[in-house]
Specification:
The structure is a homodimer. Chain A is of the alpha/beta class. In chain A, about 45% of the residues lie in helices and about 15% in strands. In chain A, the strands form three sheets. In chain A, strands 3, 4, 5, 6, 9, 10 and 11 form a seven-stranded mixed sheet that branches. A two-stranded antiparallel ribbon of chain A has the order 1-2. The longest helix of chain A has 26 residues, at about 70-95. Chain A is rod-shaped. Chain B binds a DNA duplex (25 and 25 nucleotides) through helix 3.
Chain lengths: ~300, ~300
DNA sequence: TAAAAATACTCCATAGGTATTTTAT
DNA sequence: ATAAAATACCTATGGAGTATTTTTA
C-alpha cells in the first residue's frame, strides 16, 4: 500500500491570495490593507510562499514592487487556483438549498413505468421542490445501490433486507388477474382456478415473479417455459393467448390500454402487495425524501385500480 | 479604497486533500494512512472542512463511509482546486531551470534590425541557453519599460537616465557618412563638409537623430524637412539624392546592400557612439543577462564596419 | 527626510499527535 | 468482540499582531 499517495501543496490559498494582491496593487502595504492584515504578516507569508516554491516572485524596492518574469508566469496559476477555491465556496453555498441536489431514487421495474410519470408530474406541478433522478433497478440491485450510496432511496415491494435503513409503507395494491380475451373463466377469478392455467412469469430477479409463484402455489415443474423481461411483454403474451398472469394494480390501467386482455379481480380479498420506500438512516436528504414519500403515496392513490386494503 | 476586496477561502488545500482521500479510499483510517497523518487529525480536518462549507460531505458509519450527494458534487471541485495547486508546484519546479524564462530585451530601432539577427543565430547555435523575447523600442519607451518591469533589459546608445540600473558597455561603433552615389565629395568626409549639405534625419525620439544633429552642429533652421521613420527609408532617400546622412556602423553592411549609396568614413577619428546594455539591479535573471551581454558583444564585433575605437 | 519593506519579538489559534471512548454489527 | 470513527487532551508550529530598523531616492 502506497504510503503517501496523497499529497497537498505546502502553500496555502491565503498565501496565493496575498501574492496576487501584491501584484495587482503594486505594493506590500497596499496589499496588506486590501487583505485586512498587517504589512509584516503579509510580507512574511509572501516570503514563505517564495521559499516553498523556491521562486523569487517580486523585485522589492522602496520605490516600487515589480513582478519578476517567473512571478508573472506563476501569477496566472495562482489566480486559477484561487478561482477553483472560490468555486468550491460558491458551490457549497448553493448546496445550502435543500432542493439543490436531486435525490437518486431506485424503483423496481414492475412499478417504475407506472409510478414515475405521475410522480414526475406531481413534482413538476409543485414547482420549486424536490428534484429526483429516477433509476429502474431490480430489488437486489436496488438494495446494493442503497447500501453503497449509489442511490439515496429505493421503492420496492419486498421489505429491504439490508440493515440501517428506515422503511416507510407507501400503500397496498391488490393484484389483478389478466386473461386472454377469448378465454372462458369464472367472473371473479379464484386462486385455485388460476393454478390450473399456464401462468406466465417475468424473468428471475423480479419480485413480482416470486410473488406470483407463491400466490399460485406453483410447483417448479408447472412454470411456463417463457421468461418475460418486462410487464408490457408479459401482457402482450397473455393477449396472444399464451397463458394467464397476474398484474399489480398500479400497472393495470396502463397495460389494459396497450393490449387486449381481460382484467379480473380475485375472488379472495387481500391478495396484493405493499409498496415501500426505504432510505438509509441519517441520510442527508431525509426531509426531502419524506416529501417525496408523500408525493409517491398520493400518486399511488390516484390510480383507480389501487384500492384500499380490505 | 475597498477594504477587503481580496479574500481567500477559509479552508486549506490540505483539508480538500484529506476529503478526496477519504472519498477515494472509503474510510478515514485508510485515508489517514495514505496521507501520512493520524486518523484523529484527518478526521478533525475533514470535520472542520464540513463546518466551514456548512455541508455534510460524508455519511459516517462504523461499517463504511459514504459520500453524500452534496459531497459528490463538491468532490470534483476539490479535485479541480488540488490540480490547480499541483500545477503551481509543477510550474515552480520548471522555473528552477534558469533558462525556463525568456528574457525580455528592448533594443532601439537603429540597432535592432542589425543586432538581433546575428544574436538570435548565436543563441540558436549555442543550443540550450538563454531564450530572449526581443522588442524594438525607442530609448525613452525602453527606459520606461525597464523601470516598470515590462522588459528585463535594454540595449541603447544613450546611457539610460533611470536610477537603480546596472549599465554595461557592449562596444563602440563609428559613424559612417552616406552620400548619393553621384555626389562629388572629399574622400574621407569631414564634419565641416557634411554640415554644408542637406542632412536627412530620422523622426523625433530616435537617439541617432540627436546624435547626428549634435555631430553636425546643425542649427534648427538647417534641418531637412523630411522626418524619416526608419533607417532603411532614410538610406533610400539618400540613394535618391535628397541629401546625405550618417549611419551607425552596425547598419552599414546591411543597408549598403539594399540601396545604392556611397559609404565613407569620417576624416576625424573617434566619431561614433557606444552601445550599452542595462538592466535593473537585483534583476532576477541577472546571470542570464550577463550571458546575453556576451553574445551581443561578440555579435557586434562580427560586423566588419564596427571597428575598435581609435 | 520620507516612504515602504524587512526585521524582531510576542501571542494565540490550530494542525497534529497519543490515548481513550463510543458505536454498530 | 471487533473495527472504525469520534472524543479528550496535549504539544508545537506558525500566522498574525506591534514596534522598530533598514533602505533608497
Amino acid at each position: 500500500m502506497p504510503m503517501d499517495s496523497f499529497s497537498a501543496p505546502d502553500f496555502s490559498l491565503r498565501q496565493l491570495q496575498y501574492a496576487v494582491a501584491v501584484a495587482e496593487l503594486g505594493g506590500f502595504g497596499a496589499a496588506a490593507k486590501a487583505c485586512g492584515v498587517s504589512q509584516p504578516s503579509l510580507s512574511a507569508q509572501v516570503a514563505k510562499l517564495e521559499a516553498t516554491l523556491d521562486v523569487r516572485l517580486f523585485e522589492r524596492d522602496p520605490r516600487q514592487v515589480l513582478l519578476t518574469p517567473a512571478g508573472g508566469h506563476l501569477l496566472g496559476l495562482f489566480r486559477t487556483t484561487l478561482s477553483a477555491g472560490a468555486a468550491v465556496e460558491v458551490a457549497a453555498r448553493t448546496l445550502q438549498d435543500p432542493y439543490a441536489i436531486p435525490a437518486r431514487i431506485a424503483v423496481i421495474p414492475t412499478v417504475a413505468p407506472y409510478l414515475i410519470p405521475p410522480a414526475v408530474e406531481a413534482l413538476r406541478a409543485a414547482g420549486a421542490g424536490p428534484k429526483v433522478h429516477w433509476l429502474e433497478l431490480k430489488t437486489r440491485v436496488a438494495e446494493e445501490a442503497l447500501s453503497n450510496g449509489k442511490v439515496d432511496a429505493m421503492v420496492t415491494a419486498d421489505p429491504p433486507a439490508c440493515s440501517g435503513v428506515v422503511v416507510r409503507q407507501l400503500g397496498w395494491e391488490p393484484f389483478w388477474a389478466i386473461l386472454p380475451p377469448a378465454m372462458e373463466h369464472p367472473q371473479p377469478v379464484s386462486l385455485e382456478w388460476l393454478s390450473t392455467q399456464d401462468v406466465l412469469l417475468l424473468e428471475d430477479g423480479h419480485c413480482l415473479r416470486d410473488q406470483t409463484i407463491s400466490l399460485c402455489m406453483l410447483p417448479e415443474a408447472q412454470e411456463s417455459p417463457f421468461r418475460t423481461t418486462s410487464l408490457p411483454t408479459l401482457v402482450q403474451m397473455v393477449a396472444s393467448g399464451l397463458g394467464v398472469s397476474v398484474l399489480p394494480a398500479i400497472a393495470v390501467a396502463t397495460e389494459r390500454e396497450r393490449a387486449q386482455v381481460t382484467v379480473r379481480p380475485f375472488s379472495t380479498a387481500g391478495i396484493g402487495r405493499t409498496l415501500r420506500m426505504a432510505w438509509r438512516e441519517q441520510a442527508p436528504l431525509e426531509s426531502m425524501l419524506v416529501e417525496i414519500e408523500g408525493v409517491l403515496r398520493r400518486a399511488l392513490l390516484t390510480n383507480p385500480f389501487v384500492v384500499r386494503r380490505p
